[in-house]
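S1.2 Input.
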Amino acid sequence: MAIGLGVLAVLVLAIVGYSLMNRGTDTENATNDSQREETNQSSETRGQYSGTLYSGKWYSNRSDDMTIELDSDGTYWATSWIERGKYYMTGTSTMVLEDEKGEKKEFQLQQRMGSTIMYRKEDDEEIFLYPNEEIKEKMEAEDAEQIESAENAVNQMWSDVLQKGKWEDVNAQRTFTLEFKEKEYIQTKIEGEEDKKEEVRYKYTIKSIVTEREGATFTLSRVDSNDKQDEITFKITEEGSKYILAGRTGTFMWHSYYEKKYEDVTLTQDGTTREDAPQKTTETTDENGNRVIITERDVTENDE
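S1.3 Output.
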């Protein structure tokens, strides 16, 4: 009987010990799971992710040549414009710079020339951060070329409006016409019959075209048949289904107001009609990093 009681005591102690060990393990696991869940919830709530993949020195396009250093510990400092602070990602394409006062500046990540850059629009200023000076120089040169190309295309359009088709103003007594060739313009006044026709010719060059929301202002240098040279300024606007050319009194001989229908003008780019030009497809990204495909006419020839 003594032996039986001893065995029973050992079994009881073993069962109690095993139970206590399992309870401790379960408690520890529950604590770890709880901490892990709290950490995940905190991360999801804040929505902040490490951006140290982009650590290093970045160069801006600002007039003060600001540079910014993104350190590998998640902090940053800049030579100007913003105070030091921390940086992090929100989502996959937004970099946030948050200074020590909690003020934030968000940049969109974009792919240009095979490299990642950062972009932000603040008021009317577009701010870029480049990963090195070489990319900065290439992109600024490309942007300047695109701006110049866009300006040339707009100027070409208004040159077409000026030169293609004939400007007219007709009333019961007279007909006035104005026709611009490549280097010469001809102004005509017709009274009644065709035999009462007067005509003047001027050689001219376009000195400037200033585009505005409602039209364009031209400044021409002209020379008359007596080699007298002067400058004139007038404006072309769009109204309904027609173009209006108007200058101050005395800008042109006899009359300074003319009209031309839209269908009288075939708009071109660089002197080649859009209908005849081959197509060109360009792939780029928008300010949010989305892929954008642009198909346009590739115009390279000039009309004579």
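S1.4 Remarks. The helical segments are 2-46, 133-163.
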